[in-house]
Design a protein that fits this description.
The protein is of the alpha/beta class. Helices cover 46% and strands 16% of the residues. Helix 1 links the parallel strand 1 (2-5) and strand 2.
């Protein structure tokens, strides 16, 4: 039996639907208050039979619930994580990402779970000259985001699980582009492009289709790969390229003004003041501002040499996602 955490997030949702298409039984963890509207919309759109999915209400910080749900489980796919760059949510993010992963590793060890597929992030890798590879190890730095630190802590817990007897493989996706979730990560870029904003981030990074990440997970389920990590990246490109292509698909005007250091940092400070006054989450923070100005390249050589998964062309990915965005807004 397979257990999947983070079943209502972008990657978790698409992984669950892929497993259901293959008639593979899976238990999916969700929080009691989780909103399943997007999950069911995508399931209906894809015509997926959900009879093989069993939902289990639990919080990763609930040690007893995590122990119970890992009974009779052979493999865990750990997609569950909390992503936030808001300063007031940092403590909660560390608890969920690092302590929550420790809890599920301890439960897996207690219940003799054999395999653990850990979904991490390229944020846990060190920088370097040229393309970042799996050999770019974490170096403690004041420039790391709190999200990166929390995910690095989670990775350490996963590797501890391997040291204590489990088979563990870690995947480090770049920015995941996928349909259904428009307020976070790659989905926020799609939403931004549809709104005809003026500014674009000057930076660049790696992007990967959610379908490709899911196919990597399916490949790992079917193959005994242990004790290693893979950067999961499809395309290194600029934010401007993503926004330009997406705006064109929406027949919208693409952002034309580069957000430089001064405008970006002024914007996050204004956002911080606005969020304090209104009690809302800031759309831009110091950490996301720094990230948007950075230029990073990620190698996918190890992935292409070891995992039999095709990389979806970027134009095809964006067209599919934009069509879904339009359909959901008309729904």
């Amino acid at each position: 039996m397979i257990l999947l955490t983070g079943g209502t997030g972008l990657l978790g949702t698409h992984t669950l639907l892929a497993l259901a298409r293959k008639n593979i039984a899976v238990v999916a963890i969700k929080r009691p208050a989780s909103d399943l509207q997007t999950f069911y919309y995508l399931a209906e759109k894809a015509g997926v039979n959900l009879k093989h999915i069993t939902w289990f209400d639990a919080d990763l910080l609930d040690v007893n619930a995590i122990y119970e749900v890992t009974k009779n489980i052979n493999t865990v796919i750990h997609c569950g994580a909390f992503v936030s760059f808001a300063p007031k949510q940092q403590l909660l993010m560390h608890k969920i990402n690092t302590d929550g992963t420790a809890n599920i590793i301890n439960a897996c060890l207690a219940n003799n779970v054999n395999r653990f597929i850990h979904v991490s992030s390229v944020a846990t890798l060190g920088d370097g000259i040229g393309a970042i590879t799996e050999e770019n190890h974490w170096i403690t730095s004041a420039y790391h985001s709190q999200y990166a630190i929390s995910k690095y802590g989670a990775e350490r817990e996963a590797w501890r699980g391997m040291a204590e007897g489990m088979q563990v493989v870690v995947i480090n996706p770049t920015v995941i582009l996928g349909e259904g979730y428009w307020n976070k990560n790659g989905g926020a870029l799609i939403k931004y492009a549809a709104s005809e904003k003026c500014f674009y981030p000057k930076g660049s990074t790696g992007f990967i289709d959610v379908v490709d990440v899911v196919n990597v997970i399916l490949f790992l389920l079917e193959n005994e790969i242990n004790g290693t990590r893979f950067i999961i990246n499809g395309h290194n490109t600029t934010y401007k390229n993503i926004l330009d292509q997406t705006a064109q698909l929406f027949n919208k005007k693409a952002p034309a003004l580069a957000a430089n250091y001064f405008t970006t940092h002024a914007a996050w400070r204004l956002q911080s003041i606005f969020s304090i006054l209104t009690g809302t989450q800031p759309l831009l923070t110091k950490e996301t501002a720094i990230s948007s100005l950075s230029n990073r390249l990620y190698s996918n050589t190890k992935m292409r040499n070891s995992i039999d998964v095709a990389i979806t062309p970027l134009a095809e990915t964006l067209k599919r996602i934009c069509n879904c965005y339009t359909a959901m807004n008309q729904h």
